[in-house]
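In response to the reviewer comment on reproducibility (Comment 2.3), we provide here a single inverse folding case reported in full, input and output, so that an independent group could reproduce the run without further information from us. The structure tokens appear first.
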């Protein structure tokens, strides 16, 4: 049977990927390190059928036709070429959280698609190769193939892009127990994709070079803090990476923040002034992801609940990588 179903979680970068190498193939220009976050999931079913005359892509119950469909069919095409199989596919994907709003649905989406599509067509690739395939569609998706703390290396500007670039696990979830509270600012999709936002940042920001120099340094320091289980240093560096990324982007007129983003950040900073060791990170959307030790999560949640503008709070923890599941399994 040429069918497989995979489940994947989004991941939130502690040190951010923001900016691409100029070579074709979607290579990041800076290294990144993320946590794979359970509590949010994408489930994707892929069926290759001799009877299909074209690929069919259904996301969240809606048949896709435009750019979202093209990104999926490009991945299917890579899989078909590798397998020497010309059959078209039906892809059915569902998220249990808002799509394309800065909650890393492209990361979980392409990780689940890469795993399900390779298995459905009969390619017995290891996780590293599946991660490389996912990266070509969305670089952050490479990291969601793995659980725990995961690193995606860069191809520095001026270096030649390799044939394969995959994410790799750095430490399992138990290495440093974390709570993640996601302050959802809106359910609306973002108006500017990450790809466009990072391209504009590198083209137009007066701080683009500063970001490209600073990001790998922050990444190295964050990696060391993680390996020595220094939660405070890791949190400070994660927040610094997010703020540096957004500062560079905002200077290019690329702003993913809204009033709720600022309010939630202020709540995190106020908690810190009160002695709670908690740190914020923000991706290409207005939501603030708040990191803490598990014991502090309750206090942080009540402070976020009292913060104006937050629609709801989703609680996550560091979770597993992408895996095959039964199509009937609940999300
Ligand atoms: C801010 O992986 O969505 O979340 O490779 O163009 O699909 P593409 O970009 P994407 O960018 C993620 C940007 C980020 C930071 C991160 O996840 O590292």
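Designed residues, in position order:
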């Amino acid at each position: 049977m040429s069918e497989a179903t995979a489940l994947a979680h989004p991941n939130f970068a502690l040190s951010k990927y923001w900016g691409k190498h100029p070579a074709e193939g979607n290579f990041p220009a800076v290294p990144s390190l993320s946590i794979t976050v359970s509590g949010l999931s994408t489930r994707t079913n892929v069926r290759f059928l001799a009877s299909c005359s074209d690929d069919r892509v259904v996301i969240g119950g809606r048949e896709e036709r435009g750019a979202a469909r093209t990104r999926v069919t490009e991945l299917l095409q890579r899989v078909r070429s590798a397998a020497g199989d010309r059959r078209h596919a039906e892809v059915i994907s569902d998220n249990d959280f808002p799509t394309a709003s800065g909650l890393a649905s492209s990361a979980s989406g392409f990780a689940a698609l890469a795993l399900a599509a390779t298995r459905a067509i009969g390619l017995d690739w290891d996780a590293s190769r599946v991660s490389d395939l996912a990266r070509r569609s969305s670089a952050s998706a490479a990291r969601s193939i793995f659980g725990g703390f995961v690193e995606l290396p860069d191809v520095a500007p001026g270096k030649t892009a390799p044939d394969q670039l995959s994410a790799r696990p750095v430490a399992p979830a138990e290495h440093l127990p974390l709570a993640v509270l996601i302050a959802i600012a809106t359910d609306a999709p973002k108006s500017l994709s990450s790809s466009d936002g990072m391209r504009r940042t590198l083209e137009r920001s007066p701080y683009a070079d500063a970001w490209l120099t600073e990001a790998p340094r922050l990444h190295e320091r964050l990696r060391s803090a993680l390996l020595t289980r220094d939660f405070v240093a890791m949190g400070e560096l994660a927040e610094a990476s997010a703020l540096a990324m957004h500062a560079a982007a905002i200077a290019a007129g690329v702003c993913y923040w809204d009033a709720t983003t600022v309010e939630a950040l202020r709540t995190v900073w106020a908690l810190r002034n009160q002695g709670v060791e908690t740190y914020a990170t923000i991706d290409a959307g207005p939501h603030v992801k708040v990191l803490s030790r598990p014991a502090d999560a309750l206090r942080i949640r009540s402070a976020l609940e009292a913060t104006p503008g937050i629609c709801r709070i989703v609680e996550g923890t560091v979770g597993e990588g992408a895996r095959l599941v039964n199509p009937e399994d609940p999300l």
